[in-house]
Amino acid sequence: MYVAQPIAWTVRGVTMLDQRRLPAEEISYTYTDYREVAKAIREMVIRGAPAIGVAAAMGVALGVLHSSAESVDALTTELREICATLSETRPTAVDLSWALERMCIRFAEFTAQTSDLAKIKQAMVEEAQQIHLEKKATDEGIGRFGAEFMPREGQVMTQCNAGALATGGIGTALGVIRVAYEQGKKLHVLVPETRPYLQGARLTAWELHKGGIPLTLITDNMVGHFLKSGKVGAIVTGADRIAANGDTANKIGTYQMAVLAKENSVPFYIAAPVSTFDLSIPDGDGIPIEERSAAEVTHLQGVRIAPDVHAAHPAFDVTPARYIAAIFTERGVALAPYTESLRALASSPQSAVTAR
User: Fold this and answer.
1) Is the pLDDT of residue 22 over 70?
2) Which of 110, 250, 259, 337 has the greatest CB tally within 10 Å of its CB?
3) Average of per-residue pLDDT across 139-150
């Protein structure tokens, strides 16, 4: 089954599939400077919380690899600048800060062992590659746990794009659907378009179609209609940040979908890696919400579709934990009360598949 490859470390640099051009064109770019990687993240050449984390890790590796620093102290100072630049790109997805912190920890561990700059640089490249490998294994685990909750047949719904394009693996929410489908469950996916950036129409529909999974594309304002029909067996979405109590930030429109699911007795699930947990934030009120350009609302692929008026564009919303039936992770399934189950999963040992 076809699996998209949104990012890769190559001998030439970090190669990314430009997701802004899909589905019309499949164009990739190769970046050799961490500033270019930061720009690619900010301008959504690559998007999706786990994939952003992988990109940030590779950006750090690029910066260190091509540094002209002649001492560990000088390289340490440069690392701080590299991480600061990358950290300012997308504020909501916690995987980005998680990846940067991990790269910094690895740097500190290795520089405590050696002052050989060549070895330090190679270690940082290997760490970024390891993070990518772990994300792939993480998706597989999420898919296995979540597939058990999918209906044997019928319609399921998702939101935005939480597939291979968003993670670098098989996807989180789409990974669940993909594994369930491969197990023989006869699923048909309802894909809301996800205005204003159309990740559902452009990316999720493209991935499912390429993978041979049946789908129907719908507009965002059709969600309630289809949920009321009684034919939708489950909803599964990804997440960009999950607070300690289970409140979850995901692409704008997810909250209203969860409310409608509750009203119509459709189970609403989250599929996300443990790295998406932010247990330092007690609830969703503390999750930062990225405000993107209003031009993405008033224009569609550069063409104005609204008069020159003020437009708002919060890129994410927060779904309260009370609407979430379960959270699928690579370490198991979290159920309410989430303050207990998320903490337990966060402190559990990693799978042998993902261990260094």
Assistant:
1) yes
2) 250
3) 98
